[in-house]
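Record 1 of the preview.
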Amino acid sequence: MNRSQLVLASLTLALVTTLTAQPPAGPKPAVPPSNNRVSPHETTYARVGTDRNASLITIIYGRPYSKDPKSGEIRKIWGGLVKWDKAERMGADEATTILTHQSLVFGATTIPAGVYTLYIVPSENGTSKLAFSSHVAKWGIPVDETHDVARIDLKKDTLETQLDQLQIGIETNPPAGGTLVIAWEKTKFSAAFTTAK
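->
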């Protein structure tokens, strides 16, 4: 990524952060505006690669709990709140956003450097998918499947310990790789990648 692309990506992230802080104009949004959020929000990042050529990957997302914010009851997440074999948002409130300064290579699929919305298509018995969408700075629902840049396969594992709150992050795998991880309830989805200029 050259200097002008890096500046453009940084400005895009700033714009996404600004736009997602306010609800869209028009009809009442399907999720509450930021001042009425129930779920906390988090920005997580990782540097992947060698010090000289490290790629900064940033993920911004809402972190809902398994407990229903209205009733206090524990919800079934996978196959319940998040339906199987259906495009679903990852997180709460605004759509989950990922910014990468270098291309990410998942198997035979390359995601160019830039800013994307992430959403998931989980499957109980088939292959779960993670989608990268070019439609950014939007509410998480309804999910827009018309602007997909790519969908990648996710590996599904069972966690030993139940997680009450959604976690999304990057585990680094030197020298130039990492694993994107999504974990909630007793399920972990993951996808290994490498970075490319």
